[in-house]
Design a protein that fits this description.
Blueprint: H1 2-7, H2 11-37, H3 43-66, H4 75-85, H5 87-103, H6 105-109, H7 111-134
Helix pairs in contact: 2-3, 2-7, 3-5, 4-7, 5-7
Length: 152
């Protein structure tokens, strides 16, 4: 797998994506704990809010640093596309989290473990989807279609 990443020059992007994801994880787990402990919300509803908060942070970091060549794209449309495209990875992420919270009293007391499990599982899905469908390099000005990096 690493050979494929190096061959397509994806390793730097993947590493930056992982760093953005780490920041997102801290934002997700921290805001989740705050909503549950200070806000009194249940851990399932709280996770929906914490995920949206973290997804917004990771979108911004990926826009600015990981896929910086895509900075000129309208941010509102790109943010919505990021949320929509990463919904599959987000669904897997949430499903793993909810299952871990449901099955483990230890995870219920340490919610960040459930967030971590979900994050790891959703990583590959979200990187691939983000790279191919959200942060494509360049745009065809006449048709408005996105061009892949290979077409440039």
């Amino acid at each position: 797998m690493i050979d494929r990443l190096l061959a397509h020059n994806l390793l730097p992007e993947f590493c930056k994506f992982c760093l953005a994801g780490t920041v997102g994880f801290v934002a997700d787990a921290g805001s989740l704990q705050l909503l549950v402990n200070a806000g009194g919300l249940n851990p399932y509803l709280s996770r929906l809010f914490s995920y949206l908060f973290a997804a917004t942070i990771t979108w911004w970091l990926n826009r600015r640093f990981t896929f910086a060549a895509c900075n000129g794209v309208c941010w509102q449309g790109q943010w919505l596309r990021y949320l929509a495209v990463n919904a599959a990875g987000g669904g897997v992420n949430y499903g793993i989290y909810a299952l871990a919270v449901f099955l483990s009293g230890f995870v219920r007391h340490h919610l960040y473990l459930g967030v971590a499990a979900g994050s790891v599982v959703g990583l590959a899905v979200n990187f691939t989807a983000s790279r191919l469908l959200v942060f494509r390099r360049g745009r065809d000005s006449e048709s408005g279609d996105w061009k892949s990096k290979r077409q440039e």
